[in-house]
Amino acid sequence: MIGSLAARYKNWRRKKVMDALVAPLPGCNFAFIGIGQHSLDNLYPVLLRLGVPVRYIYSRQLPLAQQAARLFPACTGVNDLSAILQDDTIKGVFICTKNEYQLPLVKTCLEQGKYVFVEKPGVTNYAGWEELTAHRHANRCMIAFNKRFNPVNAQFQKDFNKAFSYQARYVTGPYPEGNAVMELFCHPVDNVLQLFGPVKEYYFTVQQVNGGVQVQLLLQHARVTGTMELSTCYAWSSFADQLQCVTPARHVAIDYPGTFVVQELGYRPGGIPVDKILKRTGRAQVSNATGAVPVAANNSIWQHGYYQEVACFVEAVQQGKSPLEATPDTFEGTFRLLEAVSQGLGK
């Protein structure tokens, strides 16, 4: 009996995975621009898992493009963008390159009628965001801020809606190869704006210490106040991306991508701390995805939201949807705040 039930469950689970594969549509293919570490480690595996028909891989170095193209069936490596732009069967283009190259590539692809998935941040400053948002086909562009698809965020959305206070912390080591504000701090800034709503008022301090950037923010939203520490003054070995929020009923602490602790605050008649008097610790819910069963839902690619964002884009392209999710116009508050911090640093 148990063996039969287990077999039926495994068949159902296998069918669910196979049904998620992208069904090929005639004349609806994809191309990928970029062969960096993020592409290789996170985005390519998702495309392969979903069975997305990637027909071109572009790199300025043709041998690299040809080598990467061998990962995908019927894919060609190219170093000439016109091959992608002039192919009418290419409906969607993934762009994952250095930040300074992104906006020109996005605009070029949009002008050719392609849907575009561009890795965050997509622009280098607020003026670039304005330029992209004003494009006539901007609603066909998706800026891939993966935390918008993070399953832990979705799990605790009700708590975020009830929160009255939060603390966010994003700390890592120096980032001399790029713009830390636009390329690193964009992650947590967009995250808190998505979870807690637009910012009404904000105050911040900025410092540059020992090759790093230290930012302290106080943010006032419509119903919640929060603080943020954003820093590249630590070490890459001590990277942390954390969020804590408090509601009248409980305290939620998230260590991204998928670890969390939930502490129930308990009954407090008239503000009396019953837990202190009776020495109760309260119920706690703990989850650590990194130590869980090795299935898709506990994989870091899933926990970070990469799988969901790619699947969302591919489905939209196949169905001809517009606007897409995470279109440029939904990031105004994010880039406005990042611009203010950048100006505070004199950039």
From TrEMBL:
<dbReference type="GO" id="GO:0000166">
    <property type="term" value="F:nucleotide binding"/>
</dbReference>
<feature type="domain" description="Gfo/Idh/MocA-like oxidoreductase N-terminal">
    <location>
        <begin position="29"/>
        <end position="142"/>
    </location>
</feature>
<dbReference type="InterPro" id="IPR051317">
    <property type="entry name" value="Gfo/Idh/MocA_oxidoreduct"/>
</dbReference>
<dbReference type="InterPro" id="IPR000683">
    <property type="entry name" value="Gfo/Idh/MocA-like_OxRdtase_N"/>
</dbReference>
<dbReference type="Pfam" id="PF01408">
    <property type="entry name" value="GFO_IDH_MocA"/>
</dbReference>
<protein>
    <submittedName>
        <fullName>Gfo/Idh/MocA family oxidoreductase</fullName>
    </submittedName>
</protein>
<dbReference type="InterPro" id="IPR036291">
    <property type="entry name" value="NAD(P)-bd_dom_sf"/>
</dbReference>
